[in-house]
UniProtKB/TrEMBL annotation:
Protein name, as recorded: UDP-glucose 6-dehydrogenase
Family, per entry: Belongs to the UDP-glucose/GDP-mannose dehydrogenase family.
Regions crossing the membrane: none
Entry keywords, A to Z: NAD, Oxidoreductase
Entries under Gene3D superfamilies matching the protein: Cytochrome c1, transmembrane anchor, C-terminal, NAD(P)-binding Rossmann-like Domain
GO molecular function, one term: oxidoreductase activity
Organism field: Rhizobium oryzicola
Pathway: Nucleotide-sugar biosynthesis; UDP-alpha-D-glucuronate biosynthesis; UDP-alpha-D-glucuronate from UDP-alpha-D-glucose: step 1/1
InterPro entries (UniProt xref): 6-PGluconate_DH-like_C_sf, NAD(P)-bd_dom_sf, UDP-Glc/GDP-Man, UDP-Glc/GDP-Man_DH_C, UDP-Glc/GDP-Man_DH_C_sf, UDP-Glc/GDP-Man_DH_dimer, UDP-Glc/GDP-Man_DH_N, UDPglc_DH_bac
Length: 435
């Protein structure tokens, strides 16, 4: 199969490289020249574990190509995936589909022979219809079908998620296109990943429903954590206790500073907007969005309380800035709101993140960035663990304590056992645990 991937970001690059690794001939197109040039040199513009080796191996195997020439890449393709961004539209929270529609127009102009155009980007219900309309308008003669194939990979575990998915959802009403999609995913379903076929609109909604449900599950346990703090219970054990019920499941019940990232925040908001537009509001998700938004700044209040009620002129050391570990993605990271709220209250922020600092430097003015956990802890009034990178899981507490002005640890990811931290002479504050 000759596959063209429009957009070489987190999803397009990972999907393209994995398809190549399964033996397809893949061309990844991006309109940022510097990105394409560095990919050609084997330099990966994002941090994603395992990706660099996979790119190198498939480049060597001659199955993976990078280009800015969309028309050239589309003209020979059997399948063209649209994997461009669909960020929140400024002002109203709807998904901004301008990149998807622009790509559709360019694809239309270039395609030859029967071509399957696949929306892999997360797009609201009805986008496939509009993509079809655009292509038809641009090229009334074209032989094509538009399919929805949402992506469910997580950053930081993207290659494993792509290669061993729980399911592959394909929204197609065209038998020829369905056959092509079966061929594209053959290596995966031979590997036991179920293909789930449905109509295009249903497929588009499955993606939003899935992300919204997971966001709601996280928000549920976060609110449960707040209650645990008030009534003297332990949210880790509540999560374990309910998670053992197979109907509930034990995943996505880890209480923390609120969900962030490039997808849950924008996708929950876009679903809320779609539902309101169709006079069918989803109040559970409206509430999820509101609760999660306020939670991030509430985490700053937790830090302020741990510092005795004021952080003015105090030194706060933050461990981890990205929205989760094993990524350099800072989009909608809870750290952004936490830093802003602490700075609003007069704090001096020092921070360290293993992979996110290059991006964070442009987003966080007046933050001092350090070389590791110990250097930022020097003279600090509180150490705040924001993102649970492995590198922060076994900190040398004996070494840390004498470095700090006050030995206080606010653990927003419940990484440390409170008793052990206290034994080392620290004051410990977790999430939803007995203080
Ligand atoms: P991204 O911003 O990392 O990448 C998008 C890329 O598309 C950019 O490199 C951009 O330069 C390129 N691009 C935009 N318009 C183009 C055009 N006309 N021609 C060529 N290139 C173009 O975005 P992402 O995180 O990969 O997300 C892409 C889509 O996948 C979104 O809809 C997102 O919701 C969805 N998604 C993302 C993830 C994730 O983990 N990031 C997971 C599942 C689904
Ligand atoms: C999420 C989904 O998990 C993917 O299935 C989906 O494809 C993707 O969004 C998308 O549509 O882009 P991702 O955002 O990469 O993936 O990361 P997650 O692991 O889901 O974490 C999202 C946020 O929730 C992070 O801020 C994380 O810290 C938080 N989280 C997650 C919790 O606070 N508790 C949990 O138990 C799980």
């Amino acid at each position: 199969m000759r596959i063209t991937m429009i957009g070489a970001g987190y999803v397009g690059l990972v999907s393209g490289v994995c398809f190549a690794d399964f033996g397809h001939d893949v061309t990844c197109v991006d309109n940022i020249e510097s990105k394409v040039e560095s990919l050609r040199q084997g330099v990966i513009p994002i941090f994603e574990p395992g990706l660099e080796d996979l790119v190198r191996a498939n480049r060597k195997g001659g199955r993976l190509h990078f280009t800015t020439d969309l028309a050239g890449a589309v003209s020979n393709a059997d399948v063209v995936f649209i994997a461009v961004g669909t960020p929140s539209r400024r002002g109203d929270g709807h998904a901004d589909l301008s990149y998807v529609y622009a790509a559709a127009r360019d694809i239309a102009k270039a395609m030859t022979g029967f071509t399957v155009v696949v929306t892999k980007s997360t797009v609201p219900v009805g986008t496939g219809d509009e993509v079809e309309r655009i292509i038809r308008e641009e090229r009334p003669d074209a032989d094509f079908a538009v399919v929805s194939n949402p992506e469910f990979l997580r950053e930081g575990a993207a290659i494993a998620d792509f290669k061993r998915p729980d399911r592959i959802v394909i929204g197609s009403q065209d038998e020829r296109a369905s056959e092509v999609m079966r061929e594209v995913y053959r290596p995966l379903y031979l590997n036991a990943a179920p293909l789930f076929f449905c109509d295009r609109r249903t497929s588009e909604l499955i993606k939003y429903a899935g992300n919204a449900f997971l966001a709601m599950k996280i928000t549920f346990i976060n609110e449960m954590a707040d209650l645990c703090e008030k009534v003297g219970a332990d949210v880790q054990k509540v999560a374990k206790g309910i998670g053992m019920d197979k109907r509930i499941g034990d995943k996505f019940l880890h209480a923390g500073p609120g969900y962030g990232g490039s997808c849950f925040p924008k996708d929950t908001m876009a679903l809320v907007k779609t539902a309101q537009d169709h006079d069918s509001p989803i109040r559970l998700i409206e509430t999820t969005v509101a609760v999660n938004d306020t939670r991030k700044r509430a985490m700053a209040r937790k830090v302020i309380a741990a510092c005795g009620g004021s952080v003015r002129d105090k030194k706060i050391a933050l461990l981890g800035l990205t929205f989760k570990p094993n990524t350099d993605d800072m989009r909608d990271a809870p750290s952004l709101s936490i830093v802003q709220a602490l700075q609003d209250n007069g704090a001096n922020i020092h921070a360290y993140d293993p992979e996110g600092m290059d991006v964070a430097k442009d987003m966080m003015p007046d933050v001092t960035f350090g070389a590791d956990a110990y250097s930022i802890a020097e003279g600090a009034d509180v150490l705040v663990l924001v993102t649970e990178w492995d590198a922060f899981r076994a900190l040398d507490l004996r070494r840390l304590k004498p470095l700090m002005a006050q030995p206080v640890l606010v653990d927003l990811r419940n990484v440390y056992p409170p008793d052990e931290v206290r034994r080392h002479g620290f004051v410990y504050h977790g999430i939803g645990r007995r203080e």
